[in-house]
Design goal:
Elements lengths: L1 H20 L7 E6 L13 H14 L4 E6 L3 H14 L3 E3 L5 H10 L3 E6 L3 H8 L16 E8 L2 E8 L3
Parallel strand pairs: 1-4, 2-3, 2-4
Antiparallel strand pairs: 1-5, 5-6
Helix pairs in contact: 2-3, 4-5
Amino acid sequence: MLTRRVALALLTSVTLAACASSPPPDARQIYLVRHAEKAAGDNPPLTLIGRARAEILANELKDAGLTAIYSTDTRRTRETAAPIARATGLTVLPYDSGNLETFANMLRATPGNILVVGHSNTTPQLVKELGGKPGAPIVEATEYDRLYVLTANGRRFRTELRRFGE
């Protein structure tokens, strides 16, 4: 009898935890990610590993109900966004990372679920501009797997940090 109660208590707590971390079905989300691994040079393309990571990102977000995809106008960010754009049929729209406050205001006013592909310095800053919590700085040399998920709660956002790929 005691084992049954313990099992029921564990099941209840796991179920409640799952419900607490899942957004409501109509919740609006903004996904923010740094570009995948890049080659060296001026405006470099993605490496083989970076292209694989971009495909993994597309697989992670294929059912996210994206309605818009934004990318800075660099080769590495456009190549990171390309697989999910193909999967969803969406066009990758450019944004100016030099004016994140204005871009954040536009994102707040844009309905639907949105993906933004940026850089190690601009992505956490944009999270902050949206009212989210960026956490520790992105490690420039090695960190390409951070995916911010900002879930709207009115004009404020709840921040979840996910990892994707290896």
